[in-house]
Each structure stands twice: as structure tokens, then as C-alpha cells.
Amino acid sequence: MTTSTSMGRADAARGKSATGQTPAGRRVLAAASRLFYERGVNAVGVETIAAEADVTKKTLYDRFGSKDELITAYLRERDERWRADVRALLDSRTGDPKAQMEAVFEVLDAWQRAGDRYGCAFARACLDLPPAHPAHAVARGQKSWLLARLREAADAADATDPGGLAEMLLVLHEGACAASVSGALPDALDSAREAARLLIDGRCAR
Fold this sequence. Notes:
It is built from ten helices and no strands. By secondary structure, it is mainly alpha-helical. The protein is elongated, with a radius of gyration of 19 Å.
């Protein structure tokens, strides 16, 4: 049952930034981000996160209100970092929309090389959480944003059916991310990038 105290904590947390503002809050988010990604959001309790961050459970709740709010903050912060990396590579290829479409696969490659070997954090969280959980909205926003960037590049490349091309590229991107996890297709990302190039070359006028 939800108590007035827990509701008050959640309301207070919603007024704070995703980083929790304080050094303690940033430690909590950093610890939660690593543990949630490595083990799954349901497998990690607040006691473990608090111990890893060297804070009390009270501090964790003071900064984030609830575990659900912490999960959502974890995904939002990850989304912000992902978007920043994609934007940086897209900006470096201004004027070359075909290269911009290929760039999203390069960002995925860079993240995997940096240690993201457990697949898409957003998809994994959605599988673990009920449909009404706010994490689902964050995940939809992340995928919709990437789809929109692909659509913009496809439009700029004079693609036939830019929307359709963007959707196929997103499916390739997400499929590569998922297929890499099992180890059955260790070169899944390379295959997806080659398929993306063939699609882009075949559907774009320039």
C-alpha cells in the first residue's frame, strides 16, 4: 500500500534534477546505473544501491523518492548521454546525410566497446516493469527521438519513402543490439551496418 510518507517522498523527488543534485545523489545514481544495467532493475534492491553508493537508505529516498523514481532517473540520464553522443556525431557529418544515418551504428559500436555488453537498457527495463511504469515513456521517447533523427537524415538524402527507410534502420539498430547479447551472432553489429549501407545506397538519391 502507498503511504502518505512515500507519496511525499516521490513528490519531493520529482522536484529534483535527474542527478539528485548533491554529491550523494550523484553517487546513488552512478551506483544504480551500473547495477541496474548489469543485473536488471528487478534484481537490485535499494539496500544494495545505498551500500554501493556509501549512503543510507534515507538519503537515497530523500534524493529520489522511491526505487521507481530512481529507475526512471537512471534511464533519463542514460538517454541524455546517448542523445549527446548521437548529436555530436551527426553534427560532425553535417552535409552528408547518408553518413549521418550510418552514424547511429557507430555510436552503438562505441558504447559496446566501452562496456555496454548487456543489450539495450531501455528494452531490458521495459521487459522487467509493468506497462504503467514511467520507464516505458522514457524508453518510447528514446526510440522515437532516434527514429526522428534517422527520418531527418533520410529526408535530406532524398530517400524514397524516408519514413520507411528510417523505420528499417531503427529495426536494424535495435536488432543488432539484441543479437549481440546472446553471443550467437558476435558480428551482429557489423552485419547490421552492412545491411544499413545497402539500404541507404539503394534508397537515397544522394
